[in-house]
Amino acid sequence: MSSTHSSRFPWNHLIGFILSIALTLLAVFVKFYTSFSDSIVVWIIGTLAIFQALIQLFMFMHVTEGKEGWINVVNMIYSVFLALVIVFGSIWVLTSGHAAMH
Amino acid sequence: MTQANTPLEYRSHQSQMNILGFWIFLGAEIVLFSTLFASYFVLEHNTAGGPAGQDIFILKDVLIETFLLLTSSFTAGLAIHFMRNNAKNDMIVWTIVTLLLGAGFLYMEINEFIHYVHEGATIQTSGFTAAFFTLLGTHGAHVTFGIIWISLLLFQIAKRGITEKTSSKFFIASLYWHFLDVVWIFIFTFVYLKGMVG
């Protein structure tokens, strides 16, 4: 069980907040102040977004909390898997699949 | 796990099941938003002679929206922290701050949409704008619903105090609010940042 609820000062939340602001600014910096190619920029800022989502999940939403915390983790992993199949599957079928018909 | 250090919202079996059920709902929400993201990624280059993202997006406004929502997620976390310390007044104050930040986000987003319409980008302009407004509009509608939901819960907390029932309801609403921030992070990254010229 997380001990955050009994501590006097919510350090966990403050650190999560500072990290999320820092990651946002870092993404803006990578996009506008570096000279990486477009695809590399998307990979970097995409990775930063995933880190931010994990901060929300673990530091703010306490996904592992509760007696059945592992169920939440499995549920989230399965949902993200479905989301990735939907997004990359749609892009694949509707771009290369469409192009193949010509 | 002893009774003493179990947060109030997890004490009853019903509350535990409600929280678990809400996590499963959030899983379904992830899939819902993934379909909207998929449509957007497929259609984003189909501008049909209308404006593209790089023509209409304004970094400053998008950053303000992002910081409003990130901060509101933080203050929602603080409200839960104070709820668990049984500090009702602090909890109410931070919840009100959360709602104001959420309302500020909505105000910025509505102005942004009005700006786009004036720039000639309505939902009917192109595949890009249709997918864009559907994705952003669905997120904005969730934020609107969240503000109404949490406002109503605030009355319950003020009237009944922090009980097993109200704390469980409020914790679930906070999960929803954090989740909207997660969705926004991906909109910010893959719609706005990706769509602008670096």
UniProtKB/TrEMBL annotation, chain A:
Q: Which reaction does it catalyse?
A: 2 a quinol + O2 = 2 a quinone + 2 H2O
Q: Name one GO cellular component term.
A: plasma membrane
Location comes to: Cell membrane
Q: What does this protein do?
A: Catalyzes quinol oxidation with the concomitant reduction of oxygen to water.
Q: Which NCBIfam families match?
A: QoxD
Q: Belongs to which family?
A: Belongs to the cytochrome c oxidase bacterial subunit 4 family.
Protein name as it appears in the record: Quinol oxidase subunit 4
**Species of the source:** Gracilibacillus oryzae
Automatic annotation (TrEMBL), chain B:
Q: Which Pfam family, any one of them, does this sequence belong to?
A: COX3
Q: Which biological process annotations from GO are given for this protein?
A: aerobic electron transport chain; ATP synthesis coupled electron transport
Where does this protein reside within or beyond the cell? Cell membrane
One GO CC term of this entry? plasma membrane
User: Which topology term describes how it sits in the membrane?
Assistant: Multi-pass membrane protein
Q: Which residues belong to any copy of the Heme-copper oxidase subunit III family profile domain?
A: 1-196
Q: Report the enzyme's class at the first EC level.
A: oxidoreductase
Q: Which residues cross the membrane?
A: 20-42, 62-80, 92-110, 130-158, 170-193
Note whether Transmembrane occurs among the keywords.
Answer: yes
The record lists the catalysed reaction(s) as: 2 a quinol + O2 = 2 a quinone + 2 H2O
SUPFAM superfamilies cross-referenced by the UniProt entry: Cytochrome c oxidase subunit III-like
**So what family is this one in?**
Belongs to the cytochrome c oxidase subunit 3 family.
Purpose: Catalyzes quinol oxidation with the concomitant reduction of oxygen to water.
Q: Which PANTHER family match?
A: CYTOCHROME BO(3) UBIQUINOL OXIDASE SUBUNIT 3 (PTHR11403:SF2), CYTOCHROME C OXIDASE SUBUNIT III (PTHR11403)
UniProt protein name: Quinol oxidase subunit 3
Query: Whose protein is this, by species?
Result: Gracilibacillus oryzae
